[in-house]
Amino acid sequence: MTSPDTSPILPSKHLLGIDGLSPIHITALLDLAETYVVQGRAADKKTALLRGRTLINLFFEASTRTQSSFELAGKRLGADVMNMSVKTSSVSKGETLLDTASTLNAMRPDILVVRHQDAGAAELLSRKLDCSVINAGDGAHEHPTQALLDALTIRRHRGSFEGLVVAICGDVLHSRVARSNLRLLSMMGARVRLVAPRTLLPSQADRFGVEIFTDMREGLAGADIVMMLRLQLERMAGAFVPSTREYFRFYGLDRDKLACAKPGALVMHPGPMNRGVEIASDIADDALVSLIAEQVEMGVAIRMAILDALARGIARQQTEARGLA
Amino acid sequence: MKRIAFRNARLIDPATGLDAKGGLLVENGRIADVGPRLFNDAEPGDPEVIDCRGMILAPGLIDARVFTGEPGAEHRESLESASAAAAAGGVTSMIVMPNTDPVIDEPSLVDFILRRAAATAKVRVLPTAALTKGMAGETMTEIGLLKEAGAVAFTDGDRSVANARVLCRALAYAATFDALVLSHTEDPELVKGASATEGEFATRLGLPAAPAIAEAMMVERDIRLVELTGARLHFAQISTRASLDAIAAAKARRLPVTCGVAAHHLTLNELDVGSYYTFRKVRPPLRSEADRAAMVEGVASGVIDVIVSSHEPQGADTKRQPYASAAAGTVGLETLLPAALTLAHDGAAGLSQILAAMTTAPARIFGLPTGTLAKGAPADLLLLDEGDPFVVEADKLHSRARNTAFEGRKFQGRAHATFVGGQCVYAAR
Fold first, then answer.
1. What are the beta bridge partners of residue B317?
2. Residues of B in contact with A140 (CB under 8 A)
3. Which of A27, A287, A303, B408 has the most CB atoms lying inside 10 A of its own CB?
4. What is the ipTM for the molecules in this complex?
5. Are B322 and A119 a contacting pair at CB < 8 A?
6. What's the rounded Cα separation, in Å, for the pair A304 and A320?
């Protein structure tokens, strides 16, 4: 490696949301991630950038891909990675979030990756902990690393975001992925549309500078990217939609509806998918239109880039601290 | 005969419209004389003379919505600790809600509150009783016996009675005894799981939210039931323009309804939640700026009768949580007066009118002999330093619970001294 560049890519020692980032930060992160795409495809995938540093994955909600993606990213950069999930922790014994946090803090991790069912949980932890906090999803608020990996995937196929029409379809109301994506994509110059039945659209979503559609065919007309969201199956009990078959009929992505989009339009999904609910199997598996597998690969690269950027920030702080001493 | 002479005061009595320089004489805990000429010329010859130095002497405040933790959660707030906060806030009567453990739904429990208050509290404590047993919203309580025991009103506190049949019968039965019913108005199903008002801000923060109309829906339903039953109903705290309009229309039709507003709904809006500031999580949640402005307008127009603190103690354990999981509520006994005074400083309402909403109006609605400077009334008095600027600091509050929504807020005007039945219960240093 060359001598460590200590210029900050991120504006703070935490990554809590897309809110707070500027297009300059986002572009720099995506550029850095490109180098990790290359590294991830090489035979030797490992560097020692984070050697000696500790990364803790603290997941209060079940997650397969985000958690394993962070774990792999940390390990490929040489960090020690520990996974804590709610079922095996004392949180299920009634410990509060902040008690858990101060316990973890005493173990002196360098980076904490947290997912929690409540909006604002990552921010709360960032105020109480000494280490860097990365938000891996907080309630229906933000999931910034997902939006960044989606942006990386889109940029690799379309070159830039300017004027790109992106239709985000499905359960926008409960989706942190949708909120982070529309923030990021709007900031980068894309035209974002939200497509959903009225029960799954958040109140006053139009104030975000997006277009709202309740008819999926109209919403997809002329779209460059179709971004599908997972429909939580428990939403049926909450009476947001009457049944999965009705949902698929009107809001599931099939060939027929996809034909309304721009020729060559690409399909994305943050996973895990409900085949036959929000997306037809043949589209999900069609390598010509589906970017779903590539999103997972980009997920590891972007998370390596984020860990790298945060580590540079930490190194800079330590250098400054030594300078003061 | 114990006598105290107050001289050189600015007397304000919203009950009579009095606003003049003058003096006041207390004898045996009651107001014996009051007027512009009293003690003006000659130094009174009484053993105890208080020179008010031009400060405002007004009736002590009546806070019509106070939650304490006694019985059941005294570690959060007892009647004693709440009364210390009340005294420091110029509040001489607290109307306490029945949401305790156990719920105040038995005459013996009303008696317990009254006896505990007599033994420990610095200010008057007026208990309300539950409207339904266990506040479960199913069976009405013994309204007649509870009223005899001393309950000043009937309410399920911070719960709405969801079942219209139950409420309809409870109102009709309450009307038999001319009992006052207090209503909390949030449609319980619509607000289930919500911690914010639906709108752009809640969407941005990703918070579970309920539409603001969840309140007006219940207000409108309750007004229909009042019309049917003839019961006296007081909406404990409203927070939206839609509720205000519905109540204004009901009042225009001469229905026996009144309403209150919490000080925080007059002074804060949803944006004050900032980045998940749980000390500003309240119920009903903070509303849009348009709704906040409507509340100020409602006080100015008189459609809103009463300003309350809705004092609700919470501990660090229940507040230091992610926003959706944190408990709702703010302490308010000590900030009720300063927060309400901001309306006077802003020119939105007159001083006498603001004081009326915390004295005359609640006294009239709850049938209390206090809230006035009239001769013969109990000498519950507030000496108000209208110009005193200060910053709210949680550490300096007198209540046991410190969960104030106003931490760091700059206010002007607060109690300089407080008297209950002629006894000084608080004096600023």
1. none
2. 206-208
3. A303
4. 0.85
5. yes
6. 24
pLDDT tens per residue, range A137-162: 999 999 999 999 999 999 999 999 99
Q: What is the DSSP string of A32-72?
A: HHHHHHHHHHSS-----TTTT-EEEEEESS--SHHHHHHHH
Q: How far apart are CA B383 and CA B427, in angstroms?
A: 9
Judged by a CB distance cut-off of 8 A, whether residue A205 touches chain B is yes
Does the distance separating the beta carbons of B203 and A119 come in below 8 Å?
no
Q: Which two structure tokens, joined as six digits, stand for A256? A: 């027929």
Residue in B199, B206, B208 nearest the CB of A204: B199
What one-letter code names the amino acid at A178? Answer: A
Half-sphere exposure of B215 toward its Cβ, with a 13 Å CA cutoff? 28
Mutate to test the interface with B, among A96, A115, A117, A206 (most CBs of B within 10 A): A96
Are the CB atoms for A227 and A261 separated by under 8 Å? no
- Which 3 state secondary structure label does DSSP give B418? strand
Note the Cα A113 to chain centre separation in Å: 12
pLDDT in tens, B282-316: 999 999 999 999 999 999 999 999 999 999 999 98
**Chain A residues inside the 8 Å CB shell of B273:** none
Q: What is the pLDDT of residues A239-265, one digit of tens each?
A: 899 888 999 999 999 999 999 999 999
**CB proximity A140 to B under 8 Å:** yes
| A-B contacts (CB, under 8 Å) | 68
Q: What pLDDT is stored for residue B1 in this prediction?
A: 66
What are the CA-CA distances from residue B16 to residues A173, B197, B348, B352, B360 (Å)?
A: 54, 40, 21, 10, 9
Q: Which two tokens stand for residue B310?
A: 């809705």
Q: Please state the pTM of the whole predicted model.
A: 0.91
Distance from CA of A96 to the nearest CA of B (A): 7
